């Protein structure tokens, strides 16, 4: 029964990651599309799709890899912003990469935690 809770955590993490990846597109009309957001969106959607299906060892591994990719892309977006400043398509000067990157990071971390707990707890 506890494995189902961890599965639900992985699905919730993927859903939060999808929200975080889509948020820059719907929040600011002047934002250019970022390749990292597209990859994070695809990876998070795949996390939700795989986690909703059969919850086997293979699917847990796939969800873990996809969640790690999402987390890495979100971290890269946050560190790129910290070093380079706002993206060139932003019409207003911002002082942070936006809540979308942080939501994608939190979603990926939640999905990773769900998989890790499902795999390594008795």
TrEMBL record:
Keywords: Membrane, Transmembrane, Transmembrane helix. It comes from the Archaea. The keyword Transmembrane helix applies. The chain crosses the membrane at residues 38-55, 62-79, 99-118. This is SPW repeat-containing protein.
């Amino acid at each position: 029964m506890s494995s189902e809770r961890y599965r639900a955590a992985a699905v919730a993490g993927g859903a939060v990651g999808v929200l975080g990846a889509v948020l820059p597109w719907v929040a600011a009309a002047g934002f250019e599309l970022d390749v990292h957001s597209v990859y994070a969106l695809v990876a998070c959607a795949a996390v939700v799709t795989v986690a909703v299906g059969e919850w086997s060892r293979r699917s847990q591994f796939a969800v873990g890899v996809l969640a790690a990719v999402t987390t890495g892309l979100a971290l890269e977006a946050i560190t790129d912003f910290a070093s380079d400043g706002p993206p060139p398509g932003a019409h207003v000067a911002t002082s942070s990469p936006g809540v979308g990157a942080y939501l994608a990071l939190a979603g990926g971390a939640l999905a990773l935690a769900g998989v890790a707990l499902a795999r390594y707890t008795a």
